[in-house]
Amino acid sequence: MKSIVVFCGSSEGYHESYREAAYGLGAMLAARNIRIIYGGAKVGLMGALAEAALDNGGEIIGVIPSFLRTTEVAHEGLTRLITVDTMHERKLKMHELSDGVITLPGGWGTMEELFEMLTWSQLGLHSKPIGLLNVNGYYDALKALTDNMVTEGFLNEFVNASLLINGSADDLITQMEAYTPLATPHLVTKQTT
After folding, report:
1. Could you tell me how far CA 190 lies from the centroid of its own chain?
2. Each residue of 18-49: pLDDT tens digit?
3. How do 100-103 and 163-166 pair as beta strands?
């Protein structure tokens, strides 16, 4: 993989381990010469990720909507900062620039970005690996929810298994490099009358 989009929170959370994981991921990707695409902010886990990439000589590209590009939010020291008009354009541009997706802990926005990429994969719109960096078990409850979606008949088991989850950034990258994309879209099923 040459470039990875990282979705993560604009907050740091209550545990230092979240910031440490974001910084560690940024440093590791920089050391592997993997370009980072992210939301363009200098705050929260996004800021820690960016600082790590820059501190370690990595390439990091931010994509930010114009309404968020203020001196308080946008990171002006990136390799490149792309301004777009809407949140929808932001996700599309991040997708276009990346070969894979890693999601760190975050809130509503992070979940929305993750689920859109998962949905696009399920529909066959892309074949990129999607991984969760499960810091401190943050995504254990989400894994339980997606397993329940399978149990209740709302998600195919092999689609669920395509979401890669690991507590180690190194191991997650290894999983992503070995990823085999879903063969065909699996959301729509043909119904007969």
Report:
1. 31
2. 999 999 999 999 999 999 999 999 999 999 99
3. unpaired
Q: What share of the chain is helix, strand, coil (3-state, %, to 5)?
A: 45, 20, 40
Contact between 62 and 81 under an 8 Å Cβ cutoff? The reply is yes
125-144 pLDDT, tens per residue?
999 999 999 999 999 999 99
> Residue 128 has what DSSP assignment?
-
Rg value, the chain, Cα: 17
Topology annotation, domain 3-177: Rossmann fold (3.40.50)
Q: 4: part of which helix (H) or strand (E)?
A: strand 3-7
**Domain limits, the chain:** 3-177
Beta strands in 46-99 (DSSP E): 60-65, 80-84
Question: Is 134 buried (19+), middle (13-18) or exposed (0-12) by CB count in 10 A?
Answer: buried
CA distance 93 to 71: 22
How many angstroms separate the CA atoms of 91 and 111, rounded? 12
Asked if residues 74 and 64 have their Cβ atoms less than 8 Å apart, the reply is yes
Q: Is 129 left (phi over 0), alpha (psi -120 to 50) or beta?
A: beta
